[in-house]
Amino acid sequence: MEKIYLDHAATTPMRPEVLDAMLPYLKDRFGNPSSIHSFGREARKALDEARDKIAAIIGAGPDEIIFTSGGTEADNSAIKGIALARRDKGNHIITSSIEHHAVLDSCKALEKQGFKVTYLPVDQYGLVRPEDVRSAITDETILISIMHANNEVGTIEPIAEIARVAREKGVYFHTDAVQTVGQIPVNVEDLGVDMLSLSAHKFYGPKGVGALYVRKGVRALPFMHGGGQERGRRAGTENVPGIVGMAYALELAVKEMDENIKKVSGLRDALIRGVTERIDHVRVNGHPVKRLPGNASFCFEFVEGESILLNLDMKGIAGSSGSACTSGSLEPSHVLLAMGLPHEIAHGSLRLTLGRDNTMEQVRYVLDVLPEIISKLRSMSPFGRTAQ
Amino acid sequence: MGSALRDSKDDMAGTGVNMDRVVVAMSGGVDSSIAAALLKERGYDVIGVTMQVWPRSSPGGTTPVPERSCCSLAAVEDARRVASRLDIPYYVLNMEEDFSREVIDYFCNEYIAGRTPNPCIVCNTRIKFGLLLDKARALGASYIATGHYARICYDPSTRRHLLKKARDRHKDQTYVLYNLTQDQLASTLMPLGEFTKDETRALAAKLGLRIADKPDSQEICFIPDNDYRRFLAERVPHSVNPGPILDLRGNVLGEHKGIAFYTIGQRKGLGISAREPLYVVALDRERNAVIVGTESEVYSQGLIAGSVNWIAIEELVGAREARAKIRYYTEPAHAVISPLKPGYVEVGFAEPQRAVTPGQACVFYDGDVVLGGGIIEASLR
Lengths: 388, 381
Description:
The complex is a heterodimer of chains A (about 400) and B (about 375).
Chain A: E1 4-5, H1 16-26, H2 38-58, E2 65-68, H3 71-85, E3 92-96, H4 101-112, E4 116-120, H5 130-136, E5 141-145, H6 159-169, E6 172-176, H7 188-191, E7 195-199, E8 210-214, H8 240-255, H9 257-278, E9 282-284, E10 295-300, H10 305-314, E11 317-318, H11 334-338, H12 343-346, E12 349-353, H13 360-380, H14 382-387
Parallel strand pairs in A: 1-11, 3-4, 3-5, 5-6, 6-7
Antiparallel strand pairs in A: 2-8, 7-8, 9-10, 10-12
Chain B: H1 2-8, E1 21-25, H2 30-41, E2 45-52, H3 73-86, E3 90-94, H4 96-112, H5 119-138, E4 143-145, E5 150-155, E6 160-165, H6 182-186, E7 188-189, H7 197-206, H8 228-235, E8 243-247, E9 252-256, E10 279-284, E11 289-293, E12 299-310, E13 320-325, E14 333-339, E15 345-354, E16 361-366, E17 369-380
Parallel strand pairs in B: 1-2, 1-4, 2-3, 4-7, 8-11
Antiparallel strand pairs in B: 5-6, 8-9, 10-11, 12-15, 12-17, 13-14, 13-16, 14-15, 16-17
């Protein structure tokens, strides 16, 4: 059975060229970048080059990039680092109700330490309204964190507008750009953000490596201690092979970006069109236009997303429903609920996220298989029978 | 791996190919793991699932997760490892809401009503052989399977699916399965019915499953410390509702903390002194009273059972002899069972039985065969 991978928002396959670029640093060039000898210098050089590349691509300076173990660490460092560094200035944080749990749970952890957090609502498309951000800001507000694009429904947020509000009010602004870096153009100057999180494995790079952009002059307290790496902002020997792989993967992603957006959004549109034509009682989640090229998110009435997913899995098709937690268990999506979908409909969600290796034949196969699965499940559901 | 199974159970390890799809409810424990291994060996298309019925942690992550509970992360990881070793697909299904409504609410309400519930029976009826069976069918499965020690077979003469005691009498679990319908029995496989627990453990060890030495699971999966009183008081604060402790003649002997915290036959924790030992003999919701009596007053001549489900027979048409089992750890006793109004049965014991407890199940046997059972509504003195 052919396997079709449609879960690129969860992770992407690493490109073979990226592996080739990493291999020397897993073998002969194993040095510690902090060492003064030739092995160390060789590793340091690779690290500096990677830092330069990534910084240039997102419009930052090299000293504004902190390497981390991934998007979750970048989000945690940004939010907790700012909160703790600016505690004497205020105790209020603004975020949205559709953030990734790396942001939401960091905020919840801070609430337990006495911080106040405003979770902004979103509209039916999952958009945060900049005017809501403006009216939520108080004298106590020290940080705003709004994601660049949502991982479940693919909606791209008006980050530049929100950043203008934040800057006007003198509040630091962080964006979780894990879903956008490498997929669509991301430039910290154009966006006007003070901090930005990114993760390599979302753009065909290795897992376990990411970065946090921190604008020069923004002080965040480090939460890893134990060495002077990353200018004292993140202790721990750098993951040199991972960082080299991340830089190269990003370089390739940006080089092929236009072509890739065209291809992937074409597949996405065919998928969305095919599903809505062939299946009744289906909603497309997210914004019709302001959405990630690869994201197709649906809610099928009268069925559970879980059952759809498992049936697709048995046909070799890998999708996702709600957000996958560490156990692989399925929860009703906090994003869809925040967008105002009723609980029972949010339960019928299916996210298919396309990538550079997908083909139109694969989309056609999904369009063959999915209507059968949905109608079989509906025929078994007490609600479904009335719908048919 | 296959040879390990074949050596020990030649008669069971069919080598023929069987493409029926079966969903195995896996808890991460020895029994359900071996059930999955046996079915895979017999050629079924096996899918493993774990029902997550209890919140793993609250957002922000402060609620401690019971480590030994069957849906702790550790248990899920164990089940996932076993599934991966067996090379079968494995999913975690979230059933928290249904479990909370159907099982935990029932459990609390029964105690508040002065009855002693058996949550496993309700979980089996509503969740495991109810919701999970629905979900299994949605996955295209013909069967679900569990690691229960019980046997299911088809009797062509009566055209009924029968539930029979396990070969290992000490592990027999038919008591918590009496409420299965014919449809549920027809769609269920219990491959451990022919095995003893020792054989199961030996198989697990042969297969190199790490879980071979895991202790048996505790009595109530959502109360890992087994302190149901603490659980009730926390979840339903109004269950703490003091009232009088009375003797059978209505004399006040003391005060109780709330009838929910007492069970029939209980002696300890009454906080009253008397010439002879006193036991709880009844819980009176109307008067919010705990009724106590002497040892002899804890015994009953019979009982009334309601919500009766029949397995081996379609309906009880007249009085007949049977063995009646009134709690999980009590041997079935000689009795005569007679039909009352639909759904109700009167049970008369040959010998008086101790601590007949409303809310518990009374299961009727004819030898190894489960005739049916019901919930004890009242004891007859």
